[in-house]
Structure formats: C-alpha cells, structure tokens
Design goal:
Layout: H1 2-27, H2 34-51, H3 60-72, H4 93-113, H5 126-136, H6 139-161, H7 170-177, H8 182-204
C-alpha cells in the first residue's frame, strides 16, 4: 500500500503546484486566456479533492456544478463576433486548441463527482466503491478516458524533453529560460494534470 499512497501524495503536491501556477498567471497577467486559466484551476482543485476526499469539505453536487461551469464558461468567447467587435478580445489559437481537451477532462470529472466519495486507490470497501463509480461512468468509458489522458501526457512529456525546431519562435524562450520558460511551464502543468487524470481513472477502473 505504500507505493499508491506515495504516488497519490506526489500527484496531490504537483496538482497543488498547478493551482498556484494558474493563480499566479492570472494575477500577473501572464496567461493568454483568463477564462480558460480559471477553468483549469477549478479542474485542478477538483482533482486534488477527488484524490484526497477526506480533506474535501464541498458536497459532490457542488463539484459537479463547478466542473460543468468550468467547461461552459470559456465557451462564451468562442462564437465569432461581427462588425467592429470582431477583433475585440480575440481568442488565442493555443487556448482554442486546448479548450476541447479541457471539456473532456471537466466532463469526466463532473460525471465522477456525482458518484459517492471514494479513495481511488482502493482499500476497505473497494468493491462497493468501484460498483458505485461504474454506475455513474461505464468501465469501458473509464478505460477510453484513461487511454486518452495517457496519450496526452506522453505527447506532453515528449514536447518538454525534445528540442524545438530552430524556426519555432518558442525555441528562443526555451534557450533564454530553459525549463522555466513560460510556455514550457504551462505545458508541464497540463501534462501533470493529464497524468493525474490517468492515475485516477486507472484506480477507478
């Protein structure tokens, strides 16, 4: 039992860093899309709450509502604007590309939030816990979601480890800041979140 506990504690700590990084990005005006950034903070908090349910004071229905709102709120900026308002407050292409991924994660978390509170790593009553989770989300859906987040995490790790082409304008930031380059930190944060989702979904399967 030690390994799951240590892995869970490590992921909780890393996900906590994701929350702090997102908050600092909004406070410092360094994020490309504040709505999506705030939505990702809600997602990270929900992951922490699900991995450490004993320290979660919020009711499950409230988490489900917050996660649904976190998926819907950034969408208010997606429809095209017309006339002179067309170029006001544009949606960054990178944020638009990541929005669909966020919707997948937030929707999965919202569905899991309606299941009884549980320890995803098992323990006493684990069979009943899995039955309750599978009642909310079918087992095949959990496996598909786990595979998706594993693939996303693998791509994220590869993008962090492999050097960027010289023509890529982001490579200049990488050379200047190394692993602390702003875009690399955002990529690292989203990769950590994908790993956390994969770990949690595998434990629930």
């Amino acid at each position: 039992m030690r390994e799951p506990v240590i892995a869970t504690a490590l992921l909780i700590a890393l996900t906590g860093w994701c929350v702090l990084h997102g908050v600092s990005g909004i406070a410092g005006g360094r994020c490309a899309d504040r709505r999506l950034e705030a939505a990702e903070i809600v997602m990270a908090l929900a992951v922490v709450a699900m991995m450490a349910p004993a320290f979660d004071p919020l009711p499950q229905g409230l988490w489900a509502a917050l996660l649904v709102a976190s998926a819907a709120w950034p969408a208010r900026r997606r429809p095209a604007r017309a006339g002179r308002h067309q170029d006001r407050d544009p949606v960054p292409s990178g944020a638009r590309a990541h929005y669909a991924h966020h919707v997948v994660g937030a929707s999965a978390m919202a569905a899991l939030a309606v299941a009884p509170k549980h320890h995803h790593t098992g323990g006493a009553g684990g069979t009943g816990v899995h039955e309750a989770v599978h009642a909310a989300v079918p087992a095949w859906t959990l496996f598909l979601l786990a595979a998706y987040f594993l693939a996303y995490a693998a791509v994220g790790v590869a993008s962090l480890l492999l050097p960027r082409p010289a023509a890529d304008p982001r490579s200049a930031l990488d050379r200047a800041f190394g692993p602390l380059a702003p875009l690399r930190l955002v990529s690292a944060r989203r990769t950590v979140m994908a790993i956390g989702m994969f770990y949690m979904l595998v434990g629930m399967s």
